[in-house]
């Protein structure tokens, strides 16, 4: 790991080589963070991205803090080794609330952007101050989440729900499910929040962004559904621009109108296609077929399976 960090530091100082890796790498336990990558691409179409779903360790929300940290660290090390990203986006609330500080310490030369539940936004838009937080069990139980509530939503009542069954449905069944099956899958969570009188629902796990429309339809027009896609994309672009400025690539503004860097180093020729989606484990040929269908629906390239060295 020290070697990987040293290589990244050398690149930032401009002494590694005359080519660059990807601009952004995204990491999640599975498919949940794909809408976050697409949001960033919407804001900056010229960015070069790659995405890894750590399906070998799915679901992160049912693991201990140490397991979450070590699993994420192994994936990050492999991402850096393969694609040398300028910025890493952890498109996973569970990893972010559990391990972000430790991962930033271990990969100190790599700018890392986390994803946390949009509690601040929800508190701002809620009218009756009764808010539902839909997330993983690990996220809803973590002290970091409580800190966010105390800091940004002290005047609100937050009703929490960890929903591993819905996350599993989204990861393994969503993209072949009928509209009726999607509505049935989200109904238990929505019903719980409606019973509590919530007028706002936070999607506190990135997987839930895939069913945001179904949740909104089930909840009705009087309930707002919020997530952190916009904020994470903006922060990632801000962090990336700061890193580029420090590296001397001051022509790159990082604004929403940027299409591609005009005077930056060329990309390495061995990089995968932009927005390529990789997983760390395929359970079966059917698994691969599901992921290929997902990629087709998002119009992103299927990268395949990559092996992670856990040692």
Description:
The chain is α/β, with parallel strands linked by helices and 311 residues long. Helices cover 46% and strands 14% of the residues. The chain has twelve helices and ten strands. The strands form two sheets. The chain has a six-stranded parallel sheet, sandwiched between helices. Strands 6-5-7-8 form a four-stranded parallel sheet, sandwiched between helices. Strand 9, helix 12 and strand 10 form a beta-alpha-beta unit. Helix 9 crosses helix 10. It is globular and about 60 Å long. The N terminus is likely disordered.
Secondary-structure topology with pairs:
Elements: H1 2-12, E1 24-28, H2 34-43, E2 49-53, H3 65-83, E3 87-90, H4 93-106, E4 112-113, H5 119-125, E5 130-135, H6 137-141, H7 143-152, E6 157-162, H8 164-172, H9 179-195, E7 200-203, H10 212-219, E8 224-226, H11 229-246, E9 276-279, H12 285-298, E10 302-305
Parallel strand pairs: 1-2, 1-3, 2-9, 3-4, 5-6, 5-7, 7-8, 9-10
Helix pairs in contact: 2-11, 3-4, 9-10
Residue fraction in strands: 5-15%
Number of DSSP strand runs: 10
| Distinct helical segment count | 12
Separation of the first and last Cα atoms:
10 Å
Main sheet attributes: strand count, strand direction, barrel closure: 6 strands, parallel
Please describe the structure with a list of short key phrases separated by commas or semicolons:
single chain, alpha/beta, 6-stranded parallel β-sheet, 12 helices, 10 strands, 46% helix
In summary, what is this structure?
This protein is of the alpha/beta class. It is built from 12 helices and 10 strands.
């Amino acid at each position: 790991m020290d070697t990987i960090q040293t290589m990244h530091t050398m690149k930032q100082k401009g002494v590694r080589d005359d080519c660059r890796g990807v601009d952004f790498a995204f990491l999640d336990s599975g498919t949940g963070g794909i809408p976050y990558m697409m949001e960033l691409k919407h804001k900056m179409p010229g960015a070069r991205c790659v995405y890894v779903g750590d399906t070998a360790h799915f679901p992160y929300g049912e693991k201990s803090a140490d397991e979450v940290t070590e699993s994420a660290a192994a994936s990050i090390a492999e991402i850096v080794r393969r694609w040398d990203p300028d910025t890493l986006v952890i498109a996973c609330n569970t990893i972010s609330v559990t391990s972000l500080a430790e991962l930033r310490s271990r990969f100190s030369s790599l700018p890392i952007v986390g994803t946390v539940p949009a509690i601040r936004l929800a508190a701002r838009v809620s009218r009756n101050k009764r808010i539902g937080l839909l997330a993983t069990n690990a996220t809803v139980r973590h002290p970091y989440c409580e800190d966010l509530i105390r800091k940004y939503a002290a005047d609100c009542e937050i009703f929490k729900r960890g929903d591993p069954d819905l996350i599993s449905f989204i990861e393994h069944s969503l993209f072949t499910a009928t509209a009726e099956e999607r509505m049935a899958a989200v109904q238990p969570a929505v019903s719980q929040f409606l019973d509590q009188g919530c007028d706002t629902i936070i999607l506190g796990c990135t997987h839930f962004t895939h069913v945001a429309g179904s949740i909104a339809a089930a909840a009705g027009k009087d309930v707002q559904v919020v997530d952190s896609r916009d904020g994470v994309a903006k922060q990632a672009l801000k962090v990336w621009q700061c890193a580029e400025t420090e590296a001397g690539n001051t022509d790159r503004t990082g604004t929403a109108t940027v299409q591609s860097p005009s005077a930056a180093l060329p990309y390495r020729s061995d990089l995968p296609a932009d927005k390529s989606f990789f997983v760390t484990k395929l359970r079966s040929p059917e698994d691969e077929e599901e992921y290929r269908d997902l990629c087709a629906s998002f119009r992103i390239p299927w990268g395949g399976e990559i092996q992670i060295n856990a040692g």
